[in-house]
């Protein structure tokens, strides 16, 4: 957690984010900046599907893609769309602690039984489903994953700013992830 840098004042926003749409996101969410009116998206947010997270941002401010672990590898066309058609120049990639995509293997039995009981799947099919997809969504460690996904997105979209952030579910605040 010492790789996280908090934002309790505008001065604590990293210089590379200040006066960008990422800085605005951090000000809106962490510092209760007064909402401005937007007619066009200013950035793309990639974040986990987890139900414990909610961003405090103005209407129309951001495209948001939610996927397990903030993993955008399987949402590439949507990312491209937000950039190409939506005109966004920045991506805020927001992981969070206690993410269910970490150590998925430990929840294999729960997953299989849950799909059988809650959705009416045969257990054998549920197990195949888990075995097929769990390796694609397993992320091992939230911060490491966000940093590697940040690098991947930067090389894929070289003119786009990508900011690795973490949301702590305990205080519902955003933290900057240090990259050095
Ligand atoms: Zn998650």
Task: Describe the protein.
A hairpin with a 4-residue loop joins strand 5 and strand 6. This protein starts with a strand and ends with a strand. The longest helix is centred in the C-terminal third of the chain and has 15 residues. It contains five helices and six strands; from the N terminus they run βαββαβαααββ. Helix 3 packs across helix 4. The radius of gyration is 17 Å and the shape is globular. With 180 residues, the protein is an alpha/beta fold. The protein has a six-stranded mixed sheet, sandwiched between helices.
Q: Spell the H/E element sequence.
A: EHEEHEHHHEE
Major sheet, described briefly?
A: 6 strands, mixed
DSSP helical segment count: 5
Shape: globular
Residues in helix, %: 25-40%
Number of extended strands: 6
Mean pLDDT: 96
Strand residue content = 15-25%
Distinct ligands: zinc ion
Radius of gyration: 17 Å
Low-pLDDT parts are none
What is the terminal separation in angstroms?
A: 14 Å
- What's the arrangement of strands in the largest beta sheet? 1-6-5-4-2-3
């Amino acid at each position: 957690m010492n790789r996280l840098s908090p934002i309790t004042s505008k001065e604590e926003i990293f210089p590379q984010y200040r006066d960008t749409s990422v800085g605005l996101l951090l000000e809106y969410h962490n510092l209760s900046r007064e909402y401005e009116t937007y007619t066009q998206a200013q950035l793309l947010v990639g974040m986990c599907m987890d139900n414990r997270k909610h961003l405090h941002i103005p209407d129309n401010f951001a495209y948001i893609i939610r996927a397990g672990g903030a993993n955008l590898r399987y949402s590439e066309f949507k990312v491209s769309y937000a950039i190409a058609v939506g005109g966004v120049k920045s991506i805020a990639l927001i992981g969070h602690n206690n993410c269910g995509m970490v150590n998925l293997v430990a929840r294999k039995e729960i997953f299989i039984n849950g799909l059988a009981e809650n959705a009416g799947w045969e257990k054998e099919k549920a197990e195949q489903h888990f075995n097929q997809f769990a390796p694609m969504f397993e992320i091992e460690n939230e911060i490491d994953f966000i940093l590697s996904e940040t690098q991947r997105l930067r090389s894929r979209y070289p003119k786009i700013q990508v900011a690795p952030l973490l949301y702590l579910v305990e205080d519902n605040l955003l933290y900057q992830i240090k990259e050095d």
